[in-house]
Amino acid sequence: MIAQKILKNTYLVRFLKENRFLYEAAQGLRSWVTCRARKIFSVTLMLTNRCNSRCKICNIWQKQPKGDMPAGVIADLLKARCLSRMAAFVLAGGEPLLRPQIDEILTLFKGRKHRIASNGLMPERLEEIVERYGVREVDISLDGMNETYEESRGVDGFARVEESIRRLKGKALVTVVYTFSPFNRGADFKAVRDFCAEQGVRFAPNIYSCVEYGEASVGPERIEALEHGNGSGINNPYLLLYNDWLEGRVGLPCLSLRNKTVVYPNGDVSLCQVKFRRIGNLTEQTMDEIWSDPATKRLQEEFSKCNECWVSCHRESDVHMLRMLRRFMPKKRFDKKYPSRGLDLVK
Q: Rounded to 5 degrees, what are φ and ψ at 212?
C-alpha cells in the first residue's frame, strides 16, 4: 500500500526519476522483489499496429491487416492475480491514440499506474486525452531535431512534437525518449538533450534493438556518445555498458523475463519485447493461466541465459537489480546465483 501511494504521487515520482541514485535503487529493489515472486510489474500493451509515423527503426506501420486490442482482453488482464500490486502499464502501439475508441481503453486504467507512449504527432488529441482521463505520465519519442527527425521518422513532424510537449507541460510528467540508432549521431543526442533542458521536461535516452515484431533489420552499431569519459554527462550504467556489451565484454542474465511482458494487438503474449516467442494469447487464456504454465517457466529459465540484446525495457532493470544485489550480497553467493561479467566496467 505504501508503494502504491508513492507511485500515485506525481511530484515524488518526478523526484525519484530525476535523482539517478534513488531511481536506480528503487528500480533494482522493485525488480528483485517481483522477480523472486514471479509477479508482473510491467506490461507493455501494443494497443494497435496503426501508426502515422514511417520510422526506419520500426516497421509496425507497414503491418497488415490493421489490428486493435479488444477492450475485453484488457479488462480481463487487469484482474490477473499474477500482477504485482505495483504493476505499471505502458499503452503503446503503433500510435496508441489511433486505436479506435481509445477513450474506452483509458477508462479501464482509472486508479492504475500507466503511461502513454506516443509519437506526439497529434498534439490537440493528446492534450485532450491527458486532461480528460487524468493521465499522469506521457512518453514522447524524439530522435533528433528537424531534418534528423524527418529522416529517421519518415514524416515532417518535429513542430507537432514540440507543440505536444508545450501543451502537456504542467499537466503530466512528460518524458522525451531519445533512441540512439544508426539513423542519428552524437550531435542529435546533444541537441535533443539541450532541447529538453530548455523545455523543462525529462530526457530519457534509449538504445535501438532489432525487435522481431517491428521487423527491423538494421544491426546495432557502436555509439560514440556513450564512450567512457567522453564528457557527454551520461551517468546511467545501462547506457554506459552498451558499447562494452556490443563488443562482448558484458554478459548478464535476463531476469526481467520473470516480471515483465508484452501483449500485441491480437492478444498474443510474448516472452520478451525483442524475440517474439508466443507464450499464450489472452483471447484464449487468462494471464494467470499463461504465467503459471510450466512451459512459460521453462522458456523464462532457458532464455534467462540470453545476452543477445540491450533493449532498455529488459536490460536496464537487469542492470539496476544486479548492481544493487552485488552491493549487498557476498561475492561468492552473487557470482554463483547471478553469473555476470562486465558490471564493474562502470562505477
A: -60, -40
Angle, CA 208 vertex, CA 105 and CA 273 arms, to 5°: 45
Kindly report, residue by residue over 237-280, the tens digit of the pLDDT.
999 999 999 999 999 999 999 999 999 999 999 999 998 999 99
Q: What are residue 146's phi and psi, to 5 degrees?
A: 40, -100
Instruction: Give the list of residues 6+ apart from residue 187 with CB closer than 8 angstroms, or none.
Output: none
Query: What is the distance between the alpha carbons of residues 268 and 275, in angstroms, rounded to a whole number?
Result: 13
Strand arrangement, sheet containing 202-207: 202-207, 173-180, 137-141, 113-118, 83-92, 40-46, 260-263, 268-270, 278-281
Whether residue 10 is predicted with pLDDT greater than 60 in this model: the reply is: no
170: left (phi over 0), alpha (psi -120 to 50) or beta: left
Q: Reduced to 3 states, what is the DSSP secondary structure of residue 160?
A: helix
Integer Cα distance of 42 and 94 in angstroms:
18
Residue 214: per-residue pLDDT? 84
Cβ atoms of 195 and 145 within 8 Å: the answer is yes
CB 50 within 8 A of CB 68: yes
Evaluate if pTM is beyond 0.85.
yes
List the one residue out of 59, 73, 58, 34 whose CA is nearest residue 264. Answer: 73
pLDDT in tens, 35-85: 888 999 999 999 999 999 999 889 999 999 999 999 999 999 999 999 998
Radius of gyration of the chain measured on its C-alpha atoms: 19
Q: What is the DSSP string of 99-131?
A: STTHHHHHHTTTTSEEEEEE----HHHHHHHHH
Distance CA 272, CA 270 (A): 5
* CA neighbours closer than 13 Å in the CB half-sphere of residue 3: 12
Per-residue pLDDT at 5 exceeds 60: no
Q: Please choose, from the candidates 181, 224, 195, the residue with its C-alpha nearest in 3D space to the C-alpha of residue 312.
A: 181
